[in-house]
Structures are given as C-alpha cells and as structure tokens.
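Discussion board: Methods & Data

I've been asked by a reviewer to show the raw model output for two of the constructs in my manuscript, not just the figures. I'm not sure how much to include, so I'm pasting the format here to get opinions. Each protein appears as its amino acid sequence followed by a line of discrete structure tokens. Is this the kind of thing reviewers expect to see in a supplement, or should I convert it first? Here is construct A:
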Amino acid sequence: GINAEYGGVNTCLDNLWTVKNSNITVLAVKPLVYPKILQEIAPAVGPNNVIISVAAGVTIDSIQQRLPHHAKVVRAMLNTAVQIRDGAICYSTGRNVADADQELVHRFFSSVGLTLEGEEKHLDAVVGLSGSAPAYFYLILEALSDAGVRHGLSRDVSTRHASQAMLGAARMVLESGRHPGELKDEVCSPGGVTINAIYSMEKAGVRAAMMDAVDACIKRNYELARLNE
C-alpha cells in the first residue's frame, strides 16, 4: 500500500490493514491468487481506495465483481524496468475512477517510467509488446554479446557495447519521433556492411520471429484471462 504522497512504503503482513491505510493498493500477485486476495480485502475497500491490478489476463470487470460496488479499479501493464525507473506502463481505469484518482495514478506510474493511458481492450497487446519485451531484448543482447565474443571481444566489452547500442537506438526513436525504418535506412549505406547484415536477418526471419513472439504472448494472456473468469 502507498500513501497519497507515495513518499514511502510501509510493509506489513496484514492485507486488510494495508488497504485501510492506503490511498493506492497495488495487487502484485499471480493471476490465480486474485480470487482469494480480492475476497480477503473486499471488506476494507472504501470509496477512497484505488485498487491497481498489474496481473496479465485479469480484467477490470472481473475485479469489480469481487469488490464493493464503489470500488475504484485500475488495470495496468508494466515491465521490469520500473525497478530502475525506466519502465513502460499503460493503464486503464474502471467506471468509478474520478479525474483526481486518474491524475494520482498517472503521477504514481510516471515516477517509474513512460506512462500512457489507454483502453482496456488494448492492454493485452501491451502485455505482448512492452510487458514481456525485456525478455526478448535480453535474448537479443545475449546473442549479440555471443557474436562479439566469437570475434575476439571480451564478454564484458561485448555486452556493454551491445547494450549501449540498443539503448541509443531506443532513445533515437523516442526523442526524434521518427519511424524506426527511416532511422534504420540512415545506417544502411548502399552496398555497405549494415545492409548486408539486415539482409541476413531478414532471410533468417528475424522480423517474423519477433511478431510471432508477441502473438504467442498475447495468446497465452487470453488463456490466462479465461482461467480467471
């Protein structure tokens, strides 16, 4: 639970106490545990409490059905980079969430990363796109680092160079607002080394593999949602 200023975090072993003494309560538990947790905290949920779910596949409606009619519910998708305040967060609000509550939630999440509000129907796509994306990028970084080691660089140097290159590319997209394809073309000189590398990646199906990975993640998210209905 977090107080209105979210200046500090108090820990305790009593979920009811946490809800009663917090303006914002984040339900950071596995989806299959939600029915039990919601039943436990329901008596403590008042009209001023904002309940935030960060679980994949758990809808706002399914949460509100298990809480008092006045419950203010927010569903959010985020990734592990919030640990270093550089995450990607998208959230959607339930029917009882007022403008002041929405502003508080937005400020709360903005303290740990890029925060956007969106329709709940799009959150499943966000799960597959940015929610699970750190794992995709770690796999790519590991492969790039392996390539550097294969060609004589140390593991540390390979990993740091690959990581900085990925970070810089991401910042170029975000700060310039330009299409990634346009930025890619700027790196690819006619007949040069980079376009040959891109050709090799396209031939290997890297683009389709990334899209398939997002699809697979979203499909599993739908399966989890059905289990929690």
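Construct B, same format:
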Amino acid sequence: EKLPFDCLLCAPMVFFEKQDGNLCAQHALNALLQGSYFSPVDLAAIANRLDQNEQQHFAEGGVESEEFLRFMQGGSQNMDDSGFFSVQVIAQALELWGFELIPIRSDDAKDALTHPLNEKAFVCNMEEHWFTLRELGGQWYNLDSAQSHPNIVSPTYLSLFLAQMQNEGYTVFVVRGPFVNFPAPAQNHGSHEEEDPDLAAAIAASLAEPQPGAGSEARSPSSPTPLCPLASSEAEAASAAPAMAAAAAAA
C-alpha cells in the first residue's frame, strides 16, 4: 500500500539528521522525505518481508535443495544487527510513498545525467554509506549525515558533483515520484555554500581518470536535527510517522 505524500506539505524546514553510528540509510530516506518518517522498526519490517519472500522463492525448489539450505545458512541479505539495510529495502521503503529509485546509468535515467537540474533528488551509495541530494525551494542541498550541517550545492556545481561521486565509486540513483514544491527557504543559518571554483576545476580534471568499482549496499536510524525554517510546524511533519509504521506492518 502506498502512503499519501500530501502530508509532506507541512514540512517546516530543511530537515537534516546528523550521523549516528553507521545508520546512514535511515538518514538518507528521512532527508529525502524531509521528515522523521522512517525508524529502524519500519525498515526492519520491510527487510523481514523481503527475507520471507526470498525464502519462499528458494523453498519452491524444495526445502532440502542445496540452494535453499545455502540461503538459510547465509542469514538475511537485507539487514543485520549493525544497522545495515540493503538497496532493496531502500527501494521498497520509497515505494510506500510512491517513489522510484532508479540507477542513474540505466536507460530510464539517461536524461538525469545530462540534465540533473530537472530532477528533485538523488541518492548516493558506496558500500555502507548513503546520502541524499535534494532540491528544496529551488535550491539544491547536500544532506549527507556525515557532515555537521546541510551544504548548498549550486546549479553549476551539481553536475560536477554527481560526476565526481561516480568517479569516486559511488552508485548514484535518481529518485522520481510525487514530490511537493516547497517554498524558498528563508535566511539559511544552518547551511553553507558548497561550490568552490578551484575545487570544481579540480573535479572536472579528475573525471578523466579511471573510475574505481562502485559499491552497493547501506545502513540506517537516529534522532533528527532539523534546520532552516521553511513553513508550518514541526509537530505536523512528525505526525505522519505512526501511519508509516502501521502501513509497513500491515503490508
């Protein structure tokens, strides 16, 4: 069941969660949705459902088959006790809200490579780290939870930044779905301009270098540190979280 996205109209600010341990996947999802909509319990419920589906698939070949026994011995591929969540969990979580996670190098996202400003959000992943790039009120932000605050990404820098992330081994996904149009942020006390002319030139030069292999999966949870006023009240934005947990459990 897909949840309505209208409740995100009440998002009051540029929402940002600082890094808590290795819990990047939840931070990236909540930064993308601009609110505390996913908890470890929500993501674990999705991972458990994926595990059950995979178990049923392998059981079709017989519970004594080599493939089934190997699957059962391997444990979950969708989460672990450290907070890891797979890309499949991230994709399923976004589908609950009507969003699609699309690899930027796929045929469906070729235009995002050449015209990234036409998109609303990107998610970057390498090994166990996830972070979100999000357009809000006409301004792009790097909402990487490993940073101490959101960073502004200028329109001219966005394309170079995405290219550099891929050059460093990140897998980049474009996120498409029912995004709402946020008003332009007021004076942004919590964000910092990220573009540096010298850095941009260095990145452009580095793109000619060979690209290392990309990583794949993720991690997740923490408490939010919201910044930068936009509109309405924080309580309204948080009110959608119980519905999210109930839907995940009922699905």
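Answer (T.O., handling editor elsewhere):
This is acceptable in a supplement if you add a one-line summary per construct. For B, something like: The radius of gyration is 19 Å.
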